[in-house]
Structures are given as C-alpha cells and as structure tokens.
C-alpha cells in the first residue's frame, strides 16, 4: 500500500499540515496486514463480560516440614461461571531430596489437578533419590462454578526426613472466565 500524499495535493501547493493530514487519513483507513506490519484492534461488544484474575506471590513460602501436610500457597475467590485455572510455582529444597507437589483445588474438590517432582540434595542422609535443588510445577484445571467459590493452590512433600522445601517468590495463579466451556475427563 502506498502511504504517500496524493500528487494533486503537492501540485496544488498544499501546506505541510494538509499533506500530513491526508497521509494520516490514508494510513488510518488501511487494513492491517503482514505487509503493513500494523496490528488491527477490535473492541468487544459492551454486553460482553470477560474476567481474568491473576495474582503473584512476592516472597518465598515455606512448606510444612512435616511430610504429607499441605500448605496453602495462594487463593482467590471466584464468582459463579466457567473458569480455566492455571498455576505455576518453583519448588526448592536444600535438605534431603524428597518427592513433593502442588495442587489446584476448590472447596468441593481439593485436587482438580496436581503435579509432582522430587527436589533436594540427593547426597544427604534420608534422601529419597536423585533430584535437582529446584523444579517448576504447573497445574491447569477447568471448573464450572454455580456460586462464588474459593480456589486454592496447595503444596506439600512426602516425608519428614529433614527436607525443608519452599516455594520461591513469583508463584502465580491465573483464572480466565470462559463464555462456554466443555470439560472432558478421559478415563
């Protein structure tokens, strides 16, 4: 697309302001394409209600040193609706290696999704196997809520073997409201 001012304006001795206005108008009505490198934006209809909630920790959170005890990492109360949930955490442990994990749940189902790992020093007494000192965990779940419901991310580890796991700062929880949501659980 040619964004130069029309030759007629230049030939007529138009002012610089008139030429700039004509060029700006030509650019404004041109459609966005890969060739122009511009981004097209649209506005959602006023009746659309889209809600996204995102929160993040800004400090480390110690997990209980007692194996099998869940520690709440963060929570958010969501209004009724269809929601896609996602959480990310970095679990670290400088004590003996120990399996641990994090879950995302609500008041009626404490375990909508869980992911596990093993973290810690594999060379210390009581270690449960080879591992790294830290691992990233991510949980994703979908829920259809009939009423306002509290969503919580919990983390835990298995054994009371001297492990001292914690969640690094910047763990996050994201909830996206979906207009229509189909939840399929495979056998």
Question: Could you please describe the fold and organization of this structure?
Answer:
With 187 residues, this protein is mainly beta. It folds into 2 domains: 1-42, no CATH class; 52-178, Jelly Rolls (Sandwich), CATH 2.60.120.1340. It is built from 2 helices and 10 strands; from the N terminus they run H-H-E-E-E-E-E-E-E-E-E-E. It has helices spanning 7-11, 16-29; strands at 52-56, 61-62, 71-78, 81-92, 98-106, 113-119, 134-145, 149-157, 166-167, 172-178. The strands form 2 sheets. Strands 1, 2, 4, 7, 9 and 10 form a 6-stranded antiparallel sheet that branches. Strands 3-8-5-6 form a 4-stranded antiparallel sheet, with no helix packed on it. A hairpin with a 6-residue loop joins strand 5 and strand 6 (113-119). The protein is elongated, with a radius of gyration of 27 Å.
